Amino acid sequence: MSEAEAAGERRSGGCLCGSVRYETSWPPLLTGVCHCRHCQKQAGTAFSVLVAVPFAALERSGDLTVYEDGSESGNPVMRKFCGKCGSPVFSETPDGMAQGMIFIKAGTLDNPDELEPTVHFWTQSKQNWVTIPQGAVLLEKQ
Ligand SMILES: [Zn+2]
Ligand SMILES: [Zn+2]
Which is one Pfam family of this protein (predicted)? Predict the structure, then answer.
């Protein structure tokens, strides 16, 4: 357990309209950027920024709508969003859940200034204009 966890550090976030709210332990297990076409479509933009956190350390409230996505890798992704305002908030994968891990769409954090993405997924479908900072780990696929 890290010092931050021992200190019980928490961060909060929610969807655009505020119907969905959550609180999570901090820092995240991983901060990554996903350039897959599915994330581009779902977010309506160039990529998703995701933080992986322990599911057990996440508290959430509000109604989530679920879209069961096939994903480019063929593994199912449960994409959970606010049915009222449409903000994508959580993604759950069977592999992640087996490890007790859930992904939060990092743009929904109340303070996204602390984010430091270290891994870029699905760079093979990265949009041409996007430049990835030096030093990041690049994965062509998942
Ligand atoms: Zn909402
Ligand atoms: Zn993706």
Answer: GFA
Distance from the CA of 128 to the center of ligand 2, in angstroms?
16
Q: What are phi and psi of 16, to 5 degrees?
A: -60, -45
The whole-number pLDDT of residue 141 equals 81
If one counts the domains in the chain, the total is 1
The number of angstroms, rounded, from the C-alpha of 124 to the middle of its chain's C-alpha atoms is 19
- Which ligand is located closest to the Cα atom of residue 71? 2
In the prediction, which pLDDT does 75 show? 82
Cα of 25 from ligand 2 centre, angstroms: 23
Q: Domain containing 16: what range?
A: 3-138
Structure tokens at 122: 């699905």
Cα 6 to ligand 2 centre (Å): 31
